[in-house]
Amino acid sequence: MQRVNKLLSLVVLVLMGTELTQVLPANPEESWQVYSSAQDSEGRCVCTVVAPQQTMCSRDARTKQLRQLLEKVQNMTQSIQVLDQRTQRDLQYVVKMEDQLRGLETKFRQVEENHKQNIAKQYKAIKAKMAELRPLIPVLEEYKADARLVQQFKEEVQNLTSSLSLLQQEMGAYDYDDLHSRVVNLEERLRACMQKLACGKLTGISDAITIKISGSRFGSWMTDPLAPEGDTRVWYMDGYHNNRFVREYKSMVDFMMTDNFTSHRLPHPWSGTGQVVYNGSIYFNKFQSNMIIKFDFKTSTISKSQRLDNAGFSNTYHYAWGGHSDIDLMVDEGGLWAVYATNQNAGNIVISKLHPLTLHIIQTWTTNHPRRSAGESFMICGTLYVTNGYSGGTKVYYAYHTNSSTYEYIDIVLQNKYSHISMLDYNPRDRVLYAWNNGHQVLYNVTLFHVIRSEQL
Question: Could you tell me the pTM of the whole model?
Answer without folding.
Answer: 0.62
